[in-house]
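From the thread on structure requests for the teaching lab: each student submitted one protein with a one-line request. Submission from student K.M.:

"Model CxC2-like cysteine cluster KDZ transposase-associated domain-containing protein from Lentinula detonsa, tokens only."
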Amino acid sequence: MQEADSRIGQLCSCGHAARRVRCQQCLQQAPLCHSCWLGAHKHQPLHWAEAWDETKGYFVRHDISMLMPESLGIPLGHDGNQCPYATTPLLMTLVDVGGVHATRVTFCGCPDHLSKWHQLFHAGLLPATVKDPQSAFTLNLLRQWDLFNLQSKITAYQFMLSLRRLTDNVFTGNVPDLYKQFLFVTRIWPWIQMEKRFGGLYGDGMTECFPHRPKDNVMNFCPVCPDADVNMEDGWECAPSHLCHIHSSRITIDGNMKTGNYAKKNDPNDVSLFDGHAYMANSKRYEHYLKTVPQLQNEKVTCNHLNVANSASRSKFKNLRVIGTVNVHCDHYMVGSSVDIIGAERFATVDFALELFHEARPFKGKQPDKLISYDYACGLTPNISDRFHQYHPTQAPIIDNARWIIPSCHVRNHIEGCDYLYSYLYKSSTGHFYGESAEAPWDIFNQLGSSVMQMSAGHRIDTLINHYNDWNWRKTVGIVRQVLKDLDYAKVQYVQKRDHFLGLCLMFEDKVCEWTQLDRSPIIDPHNKKRVLSVYSHGDNKAPSLKSLVDKLMSSEETVPMSFGKVKLAGVAAWLHEGLLISRDQCVSRVCRIGQRTDGATKGLQKQRRSLENRISKWRKKQRQYMDMVTAYLLDQPDCEPEQMKLLLPSDFSALERKALCLAPLAGKQVQLLESALGDVINSLQTVVKTLTAACERKVKEDRGQKAHIRSHSQIRTIQTKRDELILDYSTYRRTLCTLEALDELRWPELTVRDTFRKATERRRTPGDSRILEGNLWNMTTAGHSAAAAQVASGAIFGSTLAIQDIDEEQDPTEVGVKADGWIWTAGRLENMSPKEIEEWEETENRVQWFRAEADFERWQEQIEIKHAEFQRVIASFTYYRDAWMRLSSQYSLTPGHRAYAREHSDMFESLRMDAQAKYDQCCIDILKKVHPGHTLADRILLWRAGEEKMFSFDR
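Reply posted by the TA:
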């Protein structure tokens, strides 16, 4: 318990008085006498003095001035000592992190004394008024408030109430309420800090260091995005057009309705202190824009994405002057500009936000590629060029050459044609730009909603700008870790997508050259404006019904998984072929017996076993002819059930026994048959899985009611059974090859249900599809696993082993993935198609699968290149900032404090640069790392791509 102290009443260390006062804010300080306590707190006058009251029997908390004579107060101007010409003590209210103090203060009265405001500021106190200040706040308190507000979004009212309760938690109402004064000070303090942090105290120094940027701006710019004269390498303008993504500016636009503002009678003089120098435009400029530019655009578009939003009830926006903001963010989640939404989120508001964004980042000469994401791009873009030429002419050339996408999650709510027109997955030179980065900060900024709703117009803007700057700074110091994470992930994904694409190229090698010549650009159907023709979609509304798919599958001789149309079989080969089939049927029979629920075998199983026994008996006669040296082994075989009987094929003997029995020629022939059988199993299995995937899609779209679902489920189970049988065949043949010591592990890897997973090509792509890897089955052909894919599967090209994420082995691949669209959204018709039509449908399935795999491969290849460019730009940015602050310290510093602050910032950016360089050296691909000064990144990428293209057997 610290409510009492046994040392109270003892003689103080000075030897003149008893110990009566203690301080709980000083660590391990013993109680002191009044005089010693005042001396010990000469430089800490806002600590609470707890004086022991003999009458009351406990400590009573006092302000320091209560221990002083009435003629004295907290001295200012002489480093804590009393001024010989001190003024009469003035009763002031000082607020510190420990609470609110009503205390006496004496000011310096020397002939050359400073004003009261300056004396308070030099003592670490920020007065609430300039003339005759009566209250002040410690700078330590303001620093804590700034961080608490930015991090936890606590309001000024709650913060001040907490300090008052900290002063007196019982009679809180008796503690002075400085809420209004605190509001004023907290508006001034962030502005002062930003002026300091962005070099405003160095005259025109920052303007000369960054001549291309707007003068007096106080924005935290993204160090990764292209920035003229700061982070662009020499010769970047010469990069070929198909590599424009490495110097691309990728931005996202989004509106948020949680940071609005009520319409109230505000002070007309209450304007933003930043006056258009950070993120948001000057109020007069924006008001003029709203009066000049029409806010209601009647765009004729084919997609009705915003119909629901436009028809939504406006009651929740009642009495709001501003209903929210439209923000422009870069791909690295950093805020670039912000515009208030007046009335509704109109195209004119988005246009103005884009203008503000590009004004702050001007480029002279050639502009870097511009890729813009907006959730209603299909409605915004048709007439955007005309609007910019009329209302924003200086920015019109940028918009004319910009490319547009719709964010991955939002495009799902558009018509299917928007997928192929605006999805980044089908656009070259976009990398993995999913376009949703503007959504990320809303969760943070929305916490300000309850505060900014009630603020005055200028205060609200200052608050938003303060939080935008803090968000951008937090992203700046963490940007290197994010780029490192993105690059490492892109390398893993690239290897997977490349190997998968190589496997499909080998699988469809007879079609690849024809497909390669097709145009990847989407085309709007001239006969149906809502329909888009693309190589990434089926395009044909006709699809086979579930019944016709099952009939086609089951009408073939699929119980015999081998077809030797291209293999000449002599008598020995035919006999070995029959032996392989018998071995397979033995395995199936064993599985059937294990699956029986009764003690005795069913009639069907008995019939199957009798047939198997007869086949083995006939096969033995030929065996005695071709393997006369194993007759002794046949005689020694015990009587057993047919599925347990050893056939004594060459694979049933060891290598030494095969040599002794002269079975090497037969063993070689068996190896050939097994490899052919494995190839046929792969071919059949791919067809079955395609059928299964389509059947599951048809079930979702066609079936309604319990009866239909039960029937379809039974048919799907039939196909799944066929799939499982083929996997069992593959495992049996593979195990036999292993026994013959002829198994190529890379060519014929293990195959499980998870390896058969395939993304449905009839379903629209969903967010995350590009990150989902299809099963290993699709990297295999009738000749086995892709040799090129196997060569690089270990990831050795990147100098490290790359982990590949697989689907849960216990889960059926047909049940994995994203929920499909409802049946009413599908325009296709289900038909009982002819075999020829089904073959055409299957060819379309193969084409769409190949093109989508190619798109995935190319997007992740571009993502690797983009992340290397971003690493180089962030290193260049930190280097430029380091040199700029060092220049300020040597050429524009007025005082030692100016020099020290500039050097501190220079060292801070040097530390960031060194960290970025170390991480880049750790993860970069060697060939993409800059070695020769004359080489640009584009030159190195061309060399890297040339090496990668050697894996393909055709000219891409």
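TA comment: The CA atoms of residues 226 and 249 lie 6 Å apart. DSSP finds 28 helices and 21 strands in the chain.
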